Amino acid sequence: MIIEEVAEKVYRLETPISGTDAVFAVYLIKESGGALIEPGPSAAVPSIREVIGQLEMKELTYIIPTHIHVDHAGGTGTLAQIFPDARVIVHPAGMKHVVDPSRLIESTKNALGPNFEDIFGSISPVPKSRIKTPDDGEIISLNSRDLQIIYAPGHAPHHIVIFDKRTKGLFCGEALGIPGGGNELIPLPAVAPPSFDQELYLETMEKLRKLGADILFYSHGGIGREPDTLISIAAENTRAIGDIILDALKRGEVVESIGRKVGQYTKSRFGLELSDFDQAMMVGAHALYFTKKGLV
Ligand SMILES: [Zn+2]
After folding, report:
1. What domain count does the chain have?
2. pTM of the predicted model as reported, rounded to 2 decimal places
3. Disulfide engineering: 238 pairs with which of 40, 189, 196, 266, CB 3.0-4.6 Å?
């Protein structure tokens, strides 16, 4: 388990989940009661408990998933039980699925397979009384430390990001791409069926660029120290990959061949190999989006 102080009182913990090689990063802010940003799947809960103990944090004031997908928020209900004083912060559009996760569980099965719980663990509900739904731009405080919650739709309609005014660090979830390329940080569009919206995704990137953040805290990657450049690469890749897929869909190509084209783009542009799963996810989520928009 790797735990590292990545900014003033901000700790980053990587929680490897056996059965998947994806990176899951959890962040803790050790200030007053403390905040946990990106609880991750419930399979990560034992590691989180251990680290909270190591950091000598007794309670949590806030548990803040950037969005409700299982790999970011699956453990929220379990953690809310363990830390009974913590408020759970979610976007108003995500709240009903946190209170009653039955539809979320169904759509997770569609996206990740019927046995997703074997890898990620189960999804427990959070009582409504424990949830706070902030307004766009609302500031919540930990001692004198201000955390601004900003709506960031695109990857999912209920995605939020958290801007730590103290460090100018942005907990960006998947709103600014998902970094491929290991330490090189090459953000690719973080797509997820059924709600990925490319237009909103690009708008959100420009909205977040204006915050002038100094650090990006990625959820599926490390720390980005050049936010402006990284946002530009994320936007460029979102446009380029969207164009490749739309073009090929219009020509009636099959998913596998379109996926290979996306793979060729990342390989020739960045030397980055995409797995078959990632290629298929990229094509599937875009195909749904372009169909909804009436473009194919
Ligand atoms: Zn997601």
Report:
1. 1
2. 0.96
3. 189
pLDDT of residue 93: 96
At residue 72, the pLDDT reads 95
Identify the pLDDT of residue 16: 82
How far, in Å, is the centroid of ligand 1 from the Cα of 174? 6
Per-residue confidence (pLDDT) for residue 22, from 0 to 100: 81
The C-alpha atoms of residue 30 and residue 164 are separated, in whole angstroms, by 13
Instruction: Report the separation in Å between the CA atom of 152 and the middle of ligand 1, taken as the mean of its atom positions.
Output: 12
Measured in angstroms, how far is the CA atom of residue 56 from the centroid of ligand 1? 30
Residues 6 or more apart from 198 whose CB is under 8 A from it? 154, 189, 238, 242, 286, 289
Residues of the chain with pLDDT under 50: none
Q: Would you call 77 helix, strand, or coil by DSSP?
A: helix
Interval between CA 251 and ligand 1 midpoint (Å): 29
Handedness of CA 271, 196, 116, 134 (dihedral sign): positive
∠ CA 140-16-259, rounded to 5°: 95
Domain of 198 in residue numbering reads as 2-292
